[in-house]
Amino acid sequence: MLIGAALITALVLVLVALALRRGAGGTSERRWTIHWGLGFTMTVLALLLGFGLWTGERMISRADDALRVEAEARQWGWRFTQPGPGGESVTTEGILYVPAGAPFDIVLRSADVIHSFWVPQLGGKMDAIPGHENIHRLQADAPGRHEGLCAEFCGLGHAAMRFEVVVYDPDGPPPDFASAPPPAATGEGS
Amino acid sequence: MTDTAHPDRGPARAPAEPITEDALQIAPNPPRRALPLHRELDRVWSDLPGWRGFFASVNHSTLGLRFMATSFVFFAIGGLLAMMIRAQLATRGGAFLDTALYNQIFTMHGSIMMFLFAIPMLEGLALWLLPKILGSRDMAFPRLSAFGYWCYLLGGAIIVLSLLAGVAPDGGWFMYVPLSGKTHTPGINADVWLLGVTFVEISAIAAAVEIVVTILRCRAAGMPLTRMPLMGWYMLGTAAMMLVGFPPLILGSVLLEIERAFGWPFFDVLRGGDPLLWQHLFWLFGHPEVYIIFLPAAGVLSTIIPVFARTRILGYGAIVAAVLGLVFLSFGLWVHHMFTVGIPHMALAFFSAASVLVAVPTAVQVFAWIGTMWAGRVELRLPMLHVMGFFATFVMGGLTGVMLAIVPFNWQAHDTAFVTAHLHYVLIGGFVFPMMAAVSYWMPVICGRWRVRALGEAAFWLILIGFHGTFLLMHLTGLLGMPRRIDRYPGNPEWEWLNLVSSGFGMVMAAGFALFAFDLVLQYLFGRRSHRNPWGAPTLDWAMALPAPSYNFASLPGPGRDHADALLSLAGGEGLLPGAPRGQREILVVEPGSGRPEHVAVLPGNTLLPLATALAVGSFFALMLAGLYWLTPLSMAAVLWTGWQWGHLMGTDRAHPPVRVAPGLELPLHWQVRPTLAWQGTVALLVADGALYVSLLFGVGFLGVVAPMWPAPDSGLGLGAALLAGLALLSMAAGSLAARRAEARRDRPAAARLALSGLLAAVLALACLAGLAALLDDPARHARDALRAVTLGLAGFHGIVALMLALRSLADARQGRLGTGRRGAIPAWRLFQDFWLATSVLSVGLVLLQEAG
Asked: GO cellular component terms (chain B) (predicted)?
């Protein structure tokens, strides 16, 4: 998509440059408004939109038996509830534990203002809004650790409202489901 | 010292197409000597000397320039804040500002640039340019121009001074609740935003009403809508969007301020509100806002490009269609700012498609401009350089916009630096570059001087390089995961070099803007006197001496005298309505579609009334801000009193003879016709008012369907309330009837009696509404009750306006200001009275429906 955008930008700028270098001369209105303006634009947009909707449809949460974890956002931190060893729920602060290789749904809630759950390396973001419950589907393919953050401005502690996602191997030894250590003083202002 | 390219030799001219109807034959007036004619007009149209001139001016040139100059000062303040943001982000530790101050600064940067720079800048351009390019002497409502300016200045001052006091808004420029609610922002920071911005928006509504009426009614004689300069179409689209787009924001701000001040819940989920209602109302304004800003800039491009390509614009009809398409589509895509709030994918698909579709009319225009340059031979003068800056910047901003309209990509890039980069590409590319082109293009008309050599080009290159250096890499910063609105990022060293580069180039851009301003000052002070029409433009804005005289045209353009070459003929009084023989400011009013001359409007002269009215309104906002709610009735009384004064100038107590506009063409003065400018303006105002009411209905429907904690608890409204509501509606209907009959019998003594009975009906209806207010459930209990109270309050507000107009009509009847042709305030009274009745019927029906369901 980025490459396409760059190509179209270059194309338009080349047309501008040609128009500047060219002397006066006749041209037809249809060519510019209909062919370029409508024809070219609509074609590109239709392809792009179709692709986007198809991808989006595959990404959204649907009713199946995917793993469910819960996240409650507050000023300024995250509390996660996830199935632990043996299946009972475990609640952790600041770290979410999910198995690799399977899709999972995050149920997002907020205790105060609007926050937004985002793990850039895993996929898109979803807001946590007071009074609403949003469900967001993600999947991590390989074990590892990923940085997560709050993407919606939520006040003084917004920049430091980070969390971590630990992706573990479902067939290996289970992780310890420990909470994150309390954050060091980050200078949240006066 | 000055540009050697000054066109002494007479450049190739852009060809002028006739823009008036040839079929309309209007004979020329006899030629006169230009100088005495100039003196006669200037005496009537110029501002008062000294300080009174500053406060009492209602002239569109003065006020348009003042709007633009003031907005540039705010732009400088906003730019300074941007530099502080960049200084803070240059390193990951960011020790320059503390978080609380940083939050105020980025909130203020966005708010200032949107509300105190972009919107007022385009209002200023419209005010200054429209009468000139359409061939008139002033805007339709000169006092409204001045009133809008004072509202803007006072509101802007409140907002900016709050920063000095350390209590500036700090919730981000879109002020999401609950963060900006009382619980999470207990100080007055949010109130400053809500009240200050609403105060400033009064000027936006005023400007929109004026622009619509001016374009429809104050054109050159015989200029049909379908041939007016494209700028007219663009501004008409802009103003229409402002009329419909600003009311949701105003409503949202009022609701949030009421929630903060009195605890009525609209956004509180525990009491039936929903924070998403704010987002919908805000973006219902916020997305059209982008096109409100872009359309005037596109109008500038459509005006300037053919001049420098020495040809005609290619595809006039396609461009008009594109403008109308943009106006329509822009109201269907606000949800693309809310793709991550948990809306079903089907709905997202609809808004995604609409967002993608809006790129089509934009692309049609871009290709029409390229085609125009293709057809002609382009001269790369300074304004054209800025146009090239537009192409180099805006196209990319538009394409990243299309990318953001694609849902999965949006989920990734939303609320990151990618969006910051995108919106700056769109706004600086699509607004700031065209505005710089506009200013450098029209400077000779503004100050009569030619520019100083080379400085402008240097400023252009600094800005262009600085801009792309700042924002190109910011796309990557966002894709690497940097969210918006953070003040430090100690754990992410990989973002640091990108931010450092952005910060460095940001300073280059700032230097460029400083140089741009310096260049304008030099041109104003030291530039060589400019020749007439130095660019060889075809339009009427160049058919005047430079700098533009206070009255623009000594005689007004018409068929045969409809382009820049008509300058001498117009200055010599051969056009329509020459001079100011009656010692008053007169303009020609035309039929909206065809441009056929209809009547002559007498405009008000210099007056302090707009300033007094703005101060009265301002005192209301100041008292609200101070929390002195019990004192606000004093302000309301002051507003009513100043508002009453406006009516004095709007009638006459005798029949005036028709005015000779040209040989064989005699037209009545506006006091003796019904479809006056004021009537048309009232209709335009009611469109905005209707949009406000519909937004309120949207709020009722949205909360009822989406918000948790519904249905609401049982209401205590019973038979008594129903009877009172019924009586109120009957009284309003009686008022409407009285207004109709008063207008029909205006030339008889019965008119006064009818106006009096209409007045009494309004009083009775208001008394019923007051009774209803006492019966309502506690508005603080649940959102349903709060919305009912607001609906009732809105009905009361309209009732007071209708009452004032009934009173004005009564005074007109008693003072002999009614007659066979003279209708006084009655047409405006009828409009408001009917609007009051219609909305009240709907509101009562809605409550009945809620109670039944």
From this structure: plasma membrane
> Would you call B359 and A132 a contact, using CB atoms and an 8 Å cutoff?
no
Region for B606 from its dihedrals, namely left if φ exceeds 0, alpha if ψ lies in -120 to 50, beta otherwise = beta
Interstrand relation of A95-99 and A126-128 (parallel, antiparallel or unpaired)? unpaired
Name the minimum distance, in Å, from the CA of A169 to any CA of chain B. 25
DSSP classification of residue B711: S
Q: Which two tokens stand for residue B393?
A: 């910047």
pLDDT score recorded for residue B3: 43
Find the residue in B nearest to A48 (Cα): B406
B165-218 pLDDT, tens digit per residue, is 999 999 999 999 999 999 999 999 999 999 999 999 999 999 999 999 999 999
Give the pLDDT confidence of B101-116 residue by residue, as tens digits. 999 999 999 999 999 9
Q: How far apart (Å, rounded) are the C-alpha atoms in residues B790 and B786?
A: 6
Average pLDDT of B771-793? 96
Range 253-272 of B in CB contact (< 8 A) with A: 269-270
Which amino acid, residue B572? G
Q: Position of tokens 């805007």?
A: B139
pLDDT of residue B10 exceeding 60: no
CATH superfamily of A67-168: Cupredoxins -  blue copper proteins (2.60.40.420)
- B31 — pLDDT class (breaks 50, 70, 90): very high
Q: By C-alpha distance, which of A116, A69, A113 is closest to A92?
A: A69
pLDDT of res. A186: 46
Can you tell me whether residue A24 is helix, strand or coil?
coil
Contact: A127, B342; criterion CB under 8 Å: yes
Structural domain boundaries in chain A: 30-59, 67-168
B179 and A155: CB-CB below 8 Å? yes
Contacts of B72 (CB under 8 A, 6+ apart): B117, B121, B517
Give pLDDT, residue B549. 95
CA-to-CA dists, residue B276 to A29, B499, B637, B707, angstroms? 45, 33, 36, 9
**Whole-number pLDDT of residue B12:** 54
What was the pLDDT predicted at B342?
87
Q: Give residue A188's pLDDT.
A: 41
Query: Given the structure tokens 């200084």, which residue do they identify?
Result: B87
SS3 B452: strand
DSSP β-bridge partners for residue B590: B597
Q: With a cut of 60, say whether residue B54 has pLDDT above it.
A: yes
Distance CA B283, CA B333 (A): 9
Judge whether B485 and B534 are in contact, CB under 8 Å.
no
Residue B136 has pLDDT above 90, yes or no: yes
Q: Residue B374 and residue B372: Cα distance in Å, rounded?
A: 5
Residue type present at position A35: H
Q: What whole-number distance in Å separates Cα of residue B156 and Cα of residue B118?
A: 13
> Which ipTM was obtained for this model?
0.90
- CA dist B140 to B59, B525, B581, Å? 11, 32, 20
The β-bridge relationship of strands A162-168 and A144-150 is: antiparallel
Asked if A111 is an interface residue toward chain B (Cβ–Cβ < 8 A), one would say no
Orientation of helix B382-405 relative to helix B345-357, angle to 10°: 160
**What is the average per-residue pLDDT within A149-153?**
95
